[in-house]
Amino acid sequence: MPLGSADEWLSLQTPALFRAALPFSFYSVRSRCRFLRTMTAPLSLGVLISGSGSNLQAIIDAIEREELTARIHVVISNRADAYGLTRAQQHGIPTVVIDHKEFSSREDFETALIQSLHAHQVELVVLAGFMRVLTPFFVRAFPQRIINIHPALLPAFPGTHAQRQALQYGVRIAGATVHFVDEEMDHGPIIAQAAVPVYPDDTEETLSARILAQEHRLYPHAIQLFAEGRMEIRGRTVVVHNESRAPHATLRVPDTTNGQKD
Ligand code: GRF
């Protein structure tokens, strides 16, 4: 399939279009498709976690504040002791534990994940601190329908301990990235990024907390763009339709202007 084609864009939107019972002949009318997407049912999410679930909480809160037109159909954890499971249960969200250690192969584990996500009619798979590497087998089950948040400005510092990597490298600006998941780790097309300053006395903990606060704002916002059908993948680039712009905005670190305009 050619990159950036109407087919590719439509493959991203198709379930939304089905929900809207849109006649097939309308599929090539992009603006109309996007418009109709906003009138359909909430986007159904499956959130995969392994731990605290503070990003999950941010998504739950955004839905409850009606800033995110979505519904979490299931939260799946590979660890029974993940606190995120408690967070989900407190909000009446179904939870499932699928412990990777109980499977003899990655494919068997991922088959169980896929079956559960399908059983809960999940449209978009949201990785939120899920600490298992997903293989191409899983990724192909949800093409362009898996997103992840990573605590670095990708492509810098992929993999584990991204904040520690940033400190060790000595960068002055760090941040978070929401991206589509492809068959390489921390690599797929970038949806959204947020930047934060790094200070000389930062520790891994202080920098992680500063980045995490931005993650909690960024992730629900990125999911809402998907729910509204405003994203189009063109090769490695995600085009966000009707994106607001601030072409002169900067984050300068250190800021030698003392907050004054220069
Ligand atoms: C976040 O830093 C996220 O970027 C990374 O894992 C962490 C998950 O934190 N992928 P939480 O479980 O959402 O609190």
Please describe what this structure looks like.
The chain has helices at 6-19, 30-37, 54-64, 83-90, 106-119, 136-141, 162-169, 204-227; strands at 43-49, 70-77, 95-97, 124-127, 146-150, 173-180, 190-197, 231-234, 237-240. By secondary structure, it is an alpha/beta fold. The chain folds into two domains: 1-41, no CATH class; 42-235, Formyl transferase, N-terminal domain (Rossmann fold). The protein has a seven-stranded mixed β-sheet, sandwiched between helices. A hairpin with a 2-residue loop joins strand 8 and strand 9. Helix 1 (6-19) packs parallel to helix 2 (30-37). It is globular, with a radius of gyration of 19 Å. Bound molecules: 5-O-phosphono-beta-D-ribofuranosylamine. The site of 5-O-phosphono-beta-D-ribofuranosylamine has 13 residues, from helix 3, strand 5 and helix 8.
Give a concise summary.
The protein is α/β, with parallel strands linked by helices and 262 residues long. The chain has helices spanning 6-19, 30-37, 54-64, 83-90, 106-119, 136-141, 162-169, 204-227; strands at residues 43-49, 70-77, 95-97, 124-127, 146-150, 173-180, 190-197, 231-234, 237-240. The protein folds into 2 domains: 1-41, no CATH class; 42-235, Rossmann fold.
